[in-house]
Each structure stands twice: as C-alpha cells, then as structure tokens.
Description:
The two termini are about 25 Å apart. The protein contains 2 helices and 21 strands. The chain is elongated, with a radius of gyration of 28 Å. Strands 3, 4, 5, 8, 9, 11, 12, 13, 16, 17, 20 and 21 form a 12-stranded antiparallel β-sheet that branches. By secondary structure, it is mostly beta strands.
Amino acid sequence: xxGAVNNDxxxxxxxxxxxxxxxxxxxxxxxxxxIVVQISPFDAALGNFTGGAINAITKxxxxxxxxxxYYIFRNxxxxxxxxxxxxxxxxxxLTDFKNQTYGFTFGGPIIKNKAFFFLNAEMxxxxxxxxxxxxxxxxxxxxxxxxxxxxxxxxVNFLKTKYGYDPGDFLNNPDxxxxxxxxxxxxxxxxxxxxxxxxxxxxxxxxxxxxxSTATNINFLNSAELFPSTTHSGNLELNTKFxxxxxxxxxxxxxxxxxxxxxxxxxxxxxxxxxxxxxxNINFGSETASSANLLKxxxxxxxxAFKFYAGNHAVxxxxxxxxxxxxxxxxxxxxxAYIYSALGPNGATQINPLTAFTEDRGPSRIRRQYSxxxxxxxxxxxxxxxxxxxxxxRLGFFVNDDVKVTDKFTLTLGVRA
Length: 417
C-alpha cells in the first residue's frame, strides 16, 4: 500500500495480510485510488514475493475539496431463509444479525498547487449468528435418555458454584467483528524537481470467533478465540526529477503489527466431558491455542531506484532492504486441557464423565504446556521469556534495462540479488 509492506511477513495469516486472521482487510476500499495486479512481472526492481503482487495506491487531495459519506447495512430481513435442499414449508428466516460498515472520505488543498491532504475513516461492526437447537437423545420407547438442556444446566451451575467460572451461552455463539480503519495521505510539490508523499494507515480489529454448538459438540461463547489485532503502517516517498533523462525514487516505510490472540472469558482450563448415553461432548474453558499466543512484528523497509535513459535503453539501478523484528509467543494448552472420557480399557463403558468431573474423580487425560525459562512457570501472555524473539535483514539489489528495440518491441533484461 503506497509502497509499504502489508504482507503478513511472519506467515501465520491464511489471507496473507497483516491482521488477516481477524477476518478484515488492511485498508478501506474507499481509500484506494488504483490497484495493480502483477502476475509475473519481469522488472527486477520488483521483488520479495512469489507468484504475484498486488499494489494499491491511495487517494490524494487536489485543488478542490471533495468528500463522501457512506453506510452499508445488512440483516436477517435482507437475507434468504434456510439454505439447502429442504421443502419450502421448512424454510425459516435466519437468526437476527446486523452487519454495518460506515465511513467518510475528505480531501483537498492545504496550499493550492503546493500541498494536499486526504483522509478516510471507516468502522465495521459485523455479527454472524451461529444458532443451535438442542435435540434430546431418545430411547427406543420414546423416553428421554439424554436431556441436553438439563445436562448443560448442571454443568454451568457446578462451574459457577465451585469455581466462579461462567462459560457463557451455548445456544447462539455469534462470530463478531469490530474494525476501525484510518487512512491518511499528504502530498507536497516541494519544487519543480521534487515531490514528497507521506501516508499513514491505522487498523484496529477485534474478532470473537467461537465454535458453534452441534449435535455432537456443545461449545460455549466464553470458549471463543478472541483476536485483537492492531496495525500501524506509514511511509515517506521522495520523487526527484534531475532532468528529462534522470530521476530517482526513494522510499522508507515502517509497519508495526500486534496480534494478541487470547481467550474471551476468564482464564480456565480447557475441559471436555466426552459423549455419554448418546449425547454430545460438552466442551468449556479457554480455547487451547489461545491461552498463550502473542505475535509482534516490525518491518522497516528502505527502497531506492535510480533511473536514467541512454539511447534506446531505460536503466534502473537500486536497492530494496528490509529490517524485520519479530516476537512470537505460543504455548498450546497453557492453562491445561482435561478430558473426561466414558470409555475405559478396550472400550468398556465407565462412569458418566459429568459425574467424574463433578465428584472430582480425576480426568482420563491431562495435557499442559509450560515455560521452562520463565520463573514460576508463568501461564498466558505473562510467559514472555517463552517466546521466540529474533531479528532478520533482507538485502535486495537490482539492475534492470528496458531496451526499446522498435516501437512495437521492448526487451527487458534484469538481475536481482
């Protein structure tokens, strides 16, 4: 974006962008003026990616003030009914939800013909329902063998009474996203030969991502993965035209990302009461991979491209250098994971897992990760010393020559190290 790195350099996001695991974009589309998609560019000045590159240029101000305001809304009344191959009589309206995106843009001159500004601010508030309708397990004679609501109520009451822990709702565990984007840009015509561009972007996102309850697993809202992500990204670019045949582009950019994944509810061991009497597993406590999970990244990039024309040659010589600093803390099951199973050796049925849990008879299996380097075996994000803390430098140098053989044929030669 405006030349600043917005890749997930550490490589955890399947979206490939900073904060991508929070399920939101790194920039508002209303702040974008141009997008270039390059599938296999042969210009040696382009690098640090494989397969393809997406470059976005943000909007800028002009000599006239201009702006916009927008609001995007969607709820259950604007969506279809039950999807899938079911009779029309069985289709129902979706559970209530509300998705909202609103923002504005504003740009104009600071000094006419000399300095310009552009501002975009956007907020997103989305809630995606994940409803669950309990279905009891029946005996052949029609009597109830496993009452889902009553069994879950016993577990919740026991957790609140003995441990003071509230697992939250299990009937509707909505996936929620809150995002704020701020995008700014300033352009300065310093003189006839130099143009300076400054841009800054801020993204703050918080996603609550719970598992939904199903016929085979009961999940609670406070077992959700809570994913807050904050990105600061800014860059300075100076374009200098020495003459009609010589110019230079210098850019420095910095990107700072903090992904602080954690449990939504109070810290509590992850517990599974395995299926019994045909009922679903009952799962509660902190999500196992979110008990100690923190990623911090800072990427400082320097880029310079010196270009000159000689005859039918357009030669570019330059450097592209990254300084990366990363801190990654990840301890799975830092609060412990307990499984209470109804099956004993050779598959023999044992005591009801709920009874084993409430009577403190001990779990079938315990797993826990902890730090060997932090004092007192600290859990969660307190276990700072357990994280990987490292730095790296990427040095890139390139020479590129576009040879205009004829008006209809250009040959590109380049080398990049």
